[in-house]
Amino acid sequence: VQLQASGGGLVQAWGSRRLSCVASGRMNSRYNMGWFRRAPGKEREFVAGINLSGGSTYYRDSVKGRFTISRDTAKNTVYLQMNSLRPEDSAYYYCAADLFASGSNTKYTDWRYWGQGTQVTVSS
Q1: Cα separations (Å) of 120 from 65, 68, 101?
Q2: How high is the pLDDT of residue 27?
Q3: CA quadruple 74, 76, 78, 79: dihedral positive or negative?
Q4: Could you give the CA distance from residue 29 to residue 7 in angstroms, rounded to a whole number?
Q5: Is there a contact between 96 and 59 (Cβ–Cβ < 8 Å)?
Q6: How far apart are CA 19 and CA 13, in angstroms?
Q7: 117 in the Ramachandran plot: left (φ > 0), alpha (ψ -120 to 50) or beta?
Q8: Cα angle at 101 between 95 and 102, to 5 degrees?
Q9: DSSP-assigned letter for residue 14
Q10: Segments of the chain assigned E as strands
Q11: Using one digit for the tens of pLDDT, what is the confidence trace for 64-106?
Q12: Cα separation, 59 vs 67, whole angstroms
């Protein structure tokens, strides 16, 4: 499974950005998907996750109400819509996929497949 993330860039505070992650390869199995991020000098942290059915979504507290994760199964794509962005949201954002890790799993070591990361910079 290969994951290709895109959509990062420079955005002003309170602005919006949408990240996309396209999965390819052995996608005949249905994977749970997630987004993580890593800011300079910090550890990778869970941002949002979605189960294969798309019916269950999970968020870290600091992004609840601002970020929305969704998926288009037909396109093998997961999205992260980010609104009301703050400077502390600046980080490299990574998408992840796994057959067994639930979308609520916040431990990045439990996720098997990773995209290359896309950088989001929020200016104040």
Answers
A1: 19, 16, 25
A2: 63
A3: negative
A4: 26
A5: no
A6: 17
A7: left
A8: 90
A9: T
A10: 2-6, 9-12, 17-24, 32-38, 45-50, 57-59, 67-72, 77-82, 91-98, 113-114, 118-123
A11: 999 999 998 888 899 999 999 999 999 999 999 998 889 999 9
A12: 8
- 16 vs 2: CA distance, rounded Å: 26
CA distance 85 to 67: 9
Distance CA 67, CA 81 (A): 5
- The rounded distance, in Å, linking the Cα atoms of 114 and 68 is 20
Q: Residue 28: is its pLDDT beyond 70?
A: no
